[in-house]
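ARCHIVE RECORD
Type: protein–small molecule complex
Small molecule: iron/sulfur cluster
Source of inputs: curated submission
Record status: active
Notes field left blank by submitter.
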Amino acid sequence: MNPIGMDNSVFPARRPGDGEAPPVDGVADGAGGRGNLIGLSREELGAEVAALGEKPFRVKQLWHWIYHRGATDFRAMTTLAKPLRERLADLYVLERPEIVRHQVGEDGTRKWLLRAGEGHLIETVHIPEEDRGALCISSQVGCTLTCAFCHTGTQRLVRNLEPGEIVGQFMLARDRLGEWPTPTGGARLLSNIVMMGMGEPLYNFENVKTALGIVMDEEGVALSRRRITLSTSGVVPMMERCGAELNVDLAVSLHAVTDELRSILVPLNRKYPIERLLAACRAYPGASNARRITFEYVMLRGVNDSDADARALVRLLGGVPAKVNLIPFNPWPGAPYECSSNARIASFARIVNDGGLSAPVRRPRGRDILAACGQLRSDTVGKRRSGLPRDRAGAAA
Ligand code: SF4
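STRUCTURE (tokenized, with ligand):
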């Protein structure tokens, strides 16, 4: 997906095709063979508590400690009897993904490269603003899709992330930003979630749904659904469920105004062309003029950035409750595209704005730490393959 507020990378498509939804995975084990409670739904946690012979009200207590207080150690759970705390510690962990590498950009953007079991690497990025901040969360290791502008698209899909690995990215960021217990009146540094990291979240819908259900639960993290945006490359059959069952804000990777070009930039377009995609957007549950769908549009010099393209974009989005994010492309060595000039982007934005659509130009973020989707993982994997010593490949945080 396209990280909000970050540049994207262009890389030749690894293979043509529109990708297939991978299978859904099960719940992962934690350290020492103990079960990880992070990522269990309330019902699943209730089943664990019942299996221990404990009363149902323990679920509420545990939930409070895990998701409101951010506890990482059962011994800190002072409202639970000591024997129960010890039993829990024998059987379970409250494990976040392991940090392999941590970088902080000059603009305060933080990027974590995380190990998601069996040596798989994923990325999570925190993008701070003055009085808030968004966490860009990954939903898969790699991606089956091959969007031409996205670096993750050059990495093969390894697997779907488990709910605990998705929620775990949020928990870890809160740990590192010092935002436990859940602040009253809304978190300051971590106020929003954008499902725009590695992977296509609608190809891992069940696990994403469980994970977001946990962060939205009012007795835990209690993040409002209005503070969560899910970005899709256009998995049309899943969009209705996303709106109906999660009711979060939707962002769509559009990037082109013709099927011919979009099928190159976002190969999934061959399966779900623009007309079907926009019909699904018009029908998206909860979309309205007060709650618009965001259309992401990466600015590629001489490819999709003409005034004619801008006018066509305005026509195309007529009747859709829409706003447009214009994303300056972040070129990198070997990329087959370049970023549009500032003047071109300004002209494009003016036409879209004059057409009645909000079209902010996203400020590039985290450029100095390879903050575009998939870049840090590739950088690290590449350095390890090249035989560079670990300290030169980047030290763990
Ligand atoms: S769907 Fe996959 S390839 Fe396309 S932008 Fe998202 S992560 Fe990149």
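CURATOR ANNOTATION: The first strand starts at residue 35 and ends at 36.
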